[in-house]
Design goal:
about 200 residues, alpha/beta, two-stranded antiparallel ribbon, 8 helices, SAM-dependent_MTases_sf, methyltransferase, Methyltransf_25, methyltransferase activity, transferase
């Protein structure tokens, strides 16, 4: 069994090492329209959105830009961010770690699609209050997680791929304590389990 601490720490170098393959595999096909609809219905036209763990920008940030939103994408892979800057010049693309990202501005909404669940459980607990500091009052956040408290291992390019989740009750308590309301936990299987909440 791989130590979860080591597994979580390997996420950043793994995606950086395999960036070209990841870009080809992820492609531009959008299968998340339903979830983006839920998220964006809570935003004003042209609102600012922070995409944490944006990868190469497609298809999530690309779709948000197409809908007229102002997108700032953050990813720890310099190679993926370079691709996003070239492919989607209308966005703002930054190499940074979501756990430490601290811009001067606050955003109208935050999405962390298939990225948040690569953090270890302690980092996830610490990240919920950070969401609250990064989003404006009245703004939605959306992230994906697993159905229960667990560590799960996938595989990417022959290497173990770490995922972790807290129990739904703990996510709900953390979100509520951080000042979020209208908290929804949506079983979107097989895509993901989706959390949607609004900063009060």
């Amino acid at each position: 069994m791989i130590d979860p601490v080591i597994g979580a720490a390997n996420i950043i170098p793994l995606y950086e090492r395999t960036a070209p393959v990841w870009l080809a595999a992820r492609g531009t096909e959008l299968i998340e329209t339903e979830w983006l609809d839920l998220f964006t219905r809570l935003l004003a036209p042209g609102a600012t959105i922070l995409d944490l763990g944006c990868g190469g920008g497609a298809p999530i940030a690309a779709e948000l830009l197409r809908r007229g939103f102002a997108v700032t994408g953050v990813d720890s892979s310099a190679s993926l961010i370079r691709h996003a800057r070239t492919a989607l010049p209308d966005g703002t693309w930054l190499v940074d770690d979501m756990r430490r990202f601290d811009p001067p501005e606050r955003f109208a909404g935050i999405i962390a699609w298939h990225s948040f669940f690569h953090l270890n459980v302690d980092d996830q607990r610490a990240m919920i209050p950070r969401f609250a500091k990064l989003v404006r009052p009245g703004g939605p956040i959306m992230f994906t997680a697993g159905p229960d408290a667990a560590v799960a291992w996938g595989e990417w390019q022959g290497e173990p791929l770490f995922h972790a989740s807290l129990a739904p009750e703990e996510y709900r308590d953390l979100l509520s304590a951080a000042g979020f309301g209208s908290i929804e936990f949506i079983d979107a299987d097989p895509v993901a389990y989706v959390w949607l909440a609004v900063r009060e």
